[in-house]
Structures are given as structure tokens and as C-alpha cells.
Predict the 3D structure of the following.
Amino acid sequence: MTPTISMYGASLPAFMRALRNLRHVLELGEAHALARGFEPGVLLQARLAPDMRPLLNQVQMATDTAKNGAARLAGVEAPVFPDEETDFAGLYARLDRAIAYLDTITPAQVDGSEARPVVLRTPRGEHHFEGLGYLTGFALPNLYFHVSIAYAILRHNGVALGKLDYLGRG
């Protein structure tokens, strides 16, 4: 018998875990700045390359990817989070709001969404997917990209992070 995984099981737990781990990584980044005597907000504007978005935006995009991805798979409208954060406290609150929203999505809303039409509207046009292809080809890779870049920005700036900080410990 071949084991199966549901669309909910393949999406929501991964979304929530990534956001929880991102919050942990940010906490380590803030603590690093305070321990070394510099303003933590400096890290929020750090970036890996001049044409990449800074840490602050990476966190905003990660939360948007998770909450919007869950909503699209569930066939509901996602809440809008204005990009108004300016400090670590604001980012923690945003992550907490996103995780709380994800916790409202039920397996019944997402399971069976493999073929659900998903339309992603971007400044470059519309992109059409079916649920499974959206999850595996866009939502998860995009979420992991932004979380990885946030991790890399902090690591590049001297924050003592390891792989288990990114992956989580349980």
C-alpha cells in the first residue's frame, strides 16, 4: 500500500513551520545586534546584493506567500497585511498574525484542491495553476526562497545560525 499525503498535510504544516522558524531566526538576529551594541533595525535593511530586497521585505514576502498560498488552496480570500513594519516587534507581530490565520484553515478546506484553479496576479500578468502544481511549483519554493534569504542575510551579518535554526528542532 502506497502512503498518501493530503494537500493540507503537504501545505499548512510546512507553511506554519517555516514561519515559526523564521521568527526564531529573527529573534536570534535581534539578540545578536543587542549583544554587540548596535541598533537591531540596521539588520532589517541588510541585503545580500544591491538588487535584492532587504531582510524586512523578505519577512513580509514570506508571510504573504504563506497566507496567500493557504487561502488560494482553500478557495478563500486572504487577509491583507499592509507592509508597515519598521522594527523587529512589528515583524514578530506580522509573523504571529500570519500563523494565527493559517491556523484557521481546516483540512476540509484544502484537501481535494489538487486540481482547483489558482490564478496568481502579478505586475507581470496572470499565472494559472492547478492546486498541486501551485503548491509544489510556486508556493513552497517561493516561501522557502524568502525564508532562506532572510536566514542568509542574518548569517552574512554575523548572526550565529545553524541549519537547525532554519529547519527547526521538532
In short: The domain at 7-167 is CATH 1.20.120.450 (Four Helix Bundle (Hemerythrin (Met), subunit A)). The helical segments are 7-35, 41-44, 55-74, 88-102, 107-110, 131-156, 163-167. Residues 118 and 134 are 7 Å apart (CA to CA). The radius of gyration is 17 Å.
